[in-house]
Structures are given as structure tokens and as C-alpha cells.
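pinned: reference chain
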Amino acid sequence: MSDGSGLSIFDDASDSTEPTQVIRQAPPSAPAATPAAASQASPTGAVSTVAATPNFPILRKGGYDPALVDRHVQNLAAEKAGLLASINAAQNRVSELEGQLTAALEQVEAKPEPTFASLGGRASEMLRLAEEQADDVLSTAQARADQILRQAETESEALRAQATRDAEDMRMVQLKELDEHRATVMGEVERERTAARSDAADLRASAQREADQLRLAAKAEVETIRTGAQREAEQTKAQADREVAEARRALAVEKERLTREAAEHHATATAETVRLVEDAEGRANAAEARAKEAIDSANLERSQAAEESDRALTRARREAEQIVSAAQTQADSLLSTRQAEAERALADINADVARVSKRRDAIVAQLGALRDVVSGFNESDEPDVAEESKEAAAEES
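pinned: its C-alpha cells
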């Protein structure tokens, strides 16, 4: 039996305990919708829209409106982006269909082939029919998938080619428009440059004329100033000459007055000088007398001081000799006393040395006797005996 969902295979009516197996029938593949249908519907329309050269308004100086040109370039870029998006969508759809086909093939290959040998001839026949039908459905699906894949690849290639042509057309249009705009701009720049040169020449000529006028006006003003300055200089020189002459007359009067006053002062100064000289000579003679008296007094005091110093020196020498003699005597006495004490100490030391030597000889003799006595003892006892002998000798010393 079969229903809408697939084929049902049963055994005979008497055998109702056997399980039922349902073979699902693959649904017929619906034709895949092309994702780029909107863009493929009228590809030539896009090309005609892009390739058509727009009519831009001409401005006053012969160039296109930059705002309209920029807007048209933006529209071309938007159309290009739309075409590229359509191509990408078609490629994604092709990849999706390839994935679905691969998954379906893997699912079919993964299913184990059923064996119904134990079900009888009828079941085997039904199984054969079901397998044939499944193979037909699978072949149909595979063919449909291949057809969809080829159609998608064809559409993708067509869209890619169309997009490439549209992009090339847009690039050519843009290049043409850019060349025209560049030529327009260059012409406008050249006209502006020519006008600027003309304006510059006019400005240069006008500036030259103004400079010449200013130079002439400045020259006339300088001449006027020079004339006025020369006249003022002459007046100033005349005034200065008058002032110099007046100053010379006043200087002659002042010179005569100063000469007269100098002569009067000279006479007064000469008399005063004579008086001062005589007074100074008198004071000098008095000072010389006082100096002579002071020298005589100093000579007397010096001779007295010399005699007193000689007497003090003699007295000091005598006292020093006495001190030296007493010190020498005391030193000799102290040296004799120290020498006697040293000799007594040396005698005591020699006596101690002799006594110690005798004691050492006795100890050595005793050690020899002891060594002979203990010669039969153990050699380990000898260090102890020697140590005791050394300690006894140390105590004796």
C-alpha cells in the first residue's frame, strides 16, 4: 500500500505480528527561485541607464555643475554596488544548493540497504518496486539539482559578465566625463590665468603710474624741505655768528678783569709767601735745636742702656753656668745610682740563672733515673710521666 507520505509494506493478513516498515518518498524538488531575478529581469535596462550620458546643465563659464556630476557619480556607484550584491547573492544561493545536494547524497548513502529475504515473495516484490521508485525519485532529484546548479551557475556567470560590462561602461562614462570636466576646468583655468595676467599687467601699470606720481610729489616736497632747511640754517648761522661775537666780547672783558684780579692776588700771595717762609724757617730752626737736644739725650740713654745690658748679660751667663754645673753633677750622681742598681739586678739574675740551671740538671738526672725505672712499663704511660716531669720543672722554676 501507499499513502501520501510514502509506501507501506505489509506481510500477509494472517501474519499481523510482523513490524511495519515505511519507506519515505522524497518530495519533488520545487524549482529554485533565482535570487538575482530582480537584477536579471532587465539587465539591458541597467546598461542603458548607465551607459546613457546625462544632460548636465552648462554653467556660465562653460563647465558642468559639480554637484550634479557628483550626484550622478554616486548613483553609478550605487548601481554598481547593487549589481555586485546580486552577484554575491547568486553565488551564495549556488553554494547553498550545493550544500543541500551534498547533504542529501550523504543521507542517502548513509542509510543501510534493507534486506527482506525473510518476508516472502510479495514483500520482496514490493521492496523492489519501492527501491525502483526511490531510485527514480533520487535520479529525478539529482537531475533537478544538477539543472538548478547549472541554471544558477549560468545566471551567476551572466550576472558577473553583466556586472563587469556595467562596471566597464560606468568606468568609461566616468573617464569620459572626467576628461570633459578636466578639459572644461583647464580651459576655465587658462581663461582665469589669462584674465589674471591681464589684471596683473593693469595693476602693475597703475602701480607704476602711482609710484611715478608719488616719486615726483616726494621729490618736490624734498626740494621744498631742503630750501626751507637751507634758509633756516642760514638764519641759524647768522644768529650763531652774532652770539659768538657777543661771547668773544664778553670773554675779552672777563679776561681783562681776571688778569687784573690775578695781578692783585699775585702781589698779595707773594707777600704772604715771604711771611710764611720766614715763619717756617724759624720753626725749622727751633725744631732742629729740639732735635739736637733729643739726639744727645738719646745717645746718653743708649750708652747707659748698653752698660746695663752688659752687666745683665754677664750676670745671666754666670747664673746659667751655675745651673748647668749643678745639673751635670745631679746627672752624674743619678747615673752612678742607676748603674749600681743595674749591676745588683744583673747579679741577682745571674744567681737565679745558676740556680735554675742546677735545678734543671737535677731534674734531668731524676728523669734519667725514672726513665730507667719505668722502661718496662707500657709506652702509653711515657707521655704522662713526661708531662708530669715538665709540670714539676715548671713549678720548681
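why pinned: The two ends are 145 Å apart (CA to CA). The helical segments are 37-41, 43-51, 66-110, 121-373, 382-396.
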